[in-house]
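Data availability (excerpt). All sequences and predicted token strings are deposited with the supplementary files. A representative entry, PepSY-like domain-containing protein, is shown inline so that the format can be inspected without opening the archive.
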Amino acid sequence: MKNLILTISILGLSLTTISAQDIHQNEVPSVILNSFQKSFPKASDIDWEIKGNLYEVEFETGFLGDDHKVLYSRDGKLVRHEEEISKSNLPKTVLVSIKKSFPGYRTDDIKKITEGGKVIYKIELKNYSQEWKVIFDTQGRILQKIAD
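Structure token line:
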């Protein structure tokens, strides 16, 4: 039984390593690195990974160190951009929807996600007894709501 558990644990760790691999910036193809540096010239605390056929970079920007996660295709095209934003940067439609659907909740961990020209907002909403992860579109419609 111990051998089975050990084998499963090793296999699980191996699969995790296969699915995402940390890489050094000098291992990133120049077309991707150039695209990244052009789009985010003030990025700091930069970490690169390969995830399948995509290159993922996590970094910070700004005085407060706002978090970003960007995925690039092998040809240097930005596929997805996830960025930490403040409540004041949410569209009014999303704020109205939060106030209507989640009265008394506070917002936390707000992310703006852009993919394929489409923008969504992933927000943690909390009150004294409940916590939700909710995804809104730009019109304030709830696309997904998961209890946390």
